[in-house]
Amino acid sequence: MYPDWVAEHPQISVGWSNYAVPLHTHACFYYSDERSLKRTLTFIRVGLDAEGDFNVIFADNSRHAGLLKWLQEGYEGDVQAALNERRLALVGGAPTREELLQNIARTLDSGLEAGNHLIRFLGFIAWGEPGWPTEDSLLEFEAQVSDAVRHYPAVIICTYGVPQLVGRQLIEGGLLTHPVVFLNNRVLTDSPLYLDPSTAREGA
Questions:
Q1: Which pLDDT score is estimated for 203?
Q2: Which burial class, exposed, middle or buried, applies to 10 when counting CB atoms under 10 A from its CB (0-12, 13-18, 19+)?
Q3: Residues of the chain with pLDDT > 70: what percent?
Q4: How far apart, in whole angstroms, are the C-alpha atoms of residue 160 and residue 127?
Q5: Confidence (pLDDT) at 197
Q6: How many CB atoms lie within 10 A of CB 112?
Q7: How many domains does the chain fold into?
Q8: CA-based nearest residue to 79, from 121, 91, 88
Q9: I want to staple 182 with a disulfide (CB 3.0 to 4.6 A). Which of 29, 38, 79, 93 is the partner?
Q10: How far apart are CA 69 and CA 48, in angstroms?
Q11: What is the DSSP string of 50-104?
Q12: pLDDT given at position 144
């Protein structure tokens, strides 16, 4: 059972540096160019090489092929084999927040049912793209993910493109809904800007 594994592995490596985060972390990774974005895929490569890790990439369906290509670059393992063996899963977009959450939960549950003890989840939200929820719904979605990650043996990292996204998405979507923030080679833990959804409900 994964609780025993959790007790022995309180910190999870992010892969692209020596930094590690606690289980149940919901983090955001700000990037300014393609090179820095590609670094986040090391988080998944580490999981592909680890026994018992279930790896998930969440992105618009149109991006899956490109992300898998990046994942394979410089990686000695076989990404396609990981997909076939269900050690790696892809989750696409959906038009409503509820569908997004249901699709993600279904995928995470399947990984645990297969006997895995750790979920590595890397997200690429398609803000403003067709077939995805509205900006308001996606902001609510990010807040709900912070709540949901506590119920899974998971680490979730969401990528945020600084050149492409507008202020509200970067601030409310990133800083306010993620307790851990990666910015270039720096990391902000226990972010003072983070709004805990459970605390917000209590104060409502």
A1: 43
A2: exposed
A3: 80
A4: 10
A5: 55
A6: 16
A7: 1
A8: 88
A9: 29
A10: 15
A11: STTEEEEEEE-GGGHHHHHHHHHTT--S-HHHHHHTTSEEEE---SSHHHHHHHH
A12: 86
Structure tokens at 127: 């803000």
**164 falls in which pLDDT band (50, 70, 90)?**
confident
In angstroms, the Cα distances linking 94 to 2, 40, 118, 183 are 30, 23, 25, 28
Q: In whole angstroms, what is the distance from residue 63 CA to residue 75 CA?
A: 19
Boundaries of domain holding 111: 2-203
Say how far apart CA 38 and CA 189 lie, in whole Å.
22
- Which token pair is 165? 């996204």
Q: Note the pLDDT tens digit of each residue in 154-163.
A: 999 999 888 7
Which distant-in-sequence residues (6+ apart) come within 8 Å of 195 by Cβ?
143, 176, 177
CATH number (domain holding residue 152): 3.40.50.300
Q: How would you class 155 by CB atoms within 10 Å of its CB: exposed for 0-12, middle for 13-18, buried for 19 or more?
A: buried
Question: For residue range 45-89, what is the model confidence (pLDDT) as tens digits?
Answer: 999 999 999 999 999 999 999 999 999 999 999 999 999 999 999
From residue 129, alpha-carbon distances to 62, 100, 140 in Å are 11, 14, 17
Q: What angle do CA 49, 114, 23 make, to 5 degrees?
A: 60
Name the token pair of 115.
Answer: 């006997």
Give the C-alpha separation, 15 to 20, whole Å.
Answer: 8
